[in-house]
Specification:
Layout (H helix, E strand, L loop, with lengths): L2 H5 L3 H9 L8 H10 L3 H5 L2 H32 L8 E9 L11 H17 L4 E5 L6 E3 L6 E3 L9 E10 L2 H8 L3 H4 L3 E6 L4
Antiparallel strand pairs: 1-5, 1-6, 2-5, 3-4
Helix pairs in contact: 2-5
């Protein structure tokens, strides 16, 4: 293990890891305390030399197992994927106006697969992204608690109908824009907006 990776451990973890490299020998007084705690101590005292040859390897094995488990616990913690604090999240909004080329009838599934393949390719490159298409048929609520009225449609925007979205992890807005430029949506005349998320 490199010195650089050791530097990221706490003092207690570094000490436990360093202990893995040392030979394990139980302290001499530990054996005596075990012998003294036995209920049939007196007869055993005369066989102390025989007992030592049995107890010592058992204690050494127990200590080695404990140290091994502590080291393994540290290794598992270090092996977990680290969340990079510099990462942010961005929303990519997909809009469709009159310029957007709809798929031919019966080809909607192939178009959806194309968008899915694009997202899978990003995931293979280590960029976490998820999203979905918005279906027609939404409603708009107005008034306090939405009790004022329910309109059987969703307002359009100057960019067209809000048709879908993706949420992705990225290091900065520049990277998010570069990824948004790869969306199949732009190839079909759609519009794409990129918005940073607060991450609350």
């Amino acid at each position: 293990m490199s010195d650089d990776s050791d530097a990221r451990l706490s003092e207690a973890e570094a000490a436990a890891l360093a202990a893995l490299r040392l030979p394990v020998t139980p302290p001499e007084q530990f054996e005596q305390r075990v012998v003294d705690a036995l209920p049939f101590r007196a007869p055993m005292q005369s066989r102390r030399t025989n007992l030592g040859s049995i107890v010592r390897p058992l204690l050494a094995t127990a200590a080695a197992v404990i140290i091994f488990l502590a080291g393994r616990s540290i290794g598992e913690r270090r092996a977990a994927p680290e969340l990079r604090s510099e990462d942010a999240q961005f929303m990519i909004l997909l809009f469709e106006d009159a310029a957007y080329v709809q798929p031919e009838p019966g080809q909607e599934g192939a178009r959806a697969t194309e968008y899915g393949d694009w997202a899978s390719d990003l995931a293979a490159r280590g960029i976490r992204i998820e999203g979905d298409e918005l279906l027609p048929g939404g409603v708009t609520l107005t008034g306090a608690s939405g009790a004022g009225s329910i309109e059987p449609s969703v307002p359009g925007t100057p960019a067209g109908r809000f048709a879908g979205y993706f949420i992705m992890d990225g290091s900065d807005m520049e990277q998010a824009i570069a990824i948004a430029r790869e969306t199949p949506h732009l190839r079909y005349g759609g519009r794409v907006a990129v918005i940073p998320l607060a991450g609350h």
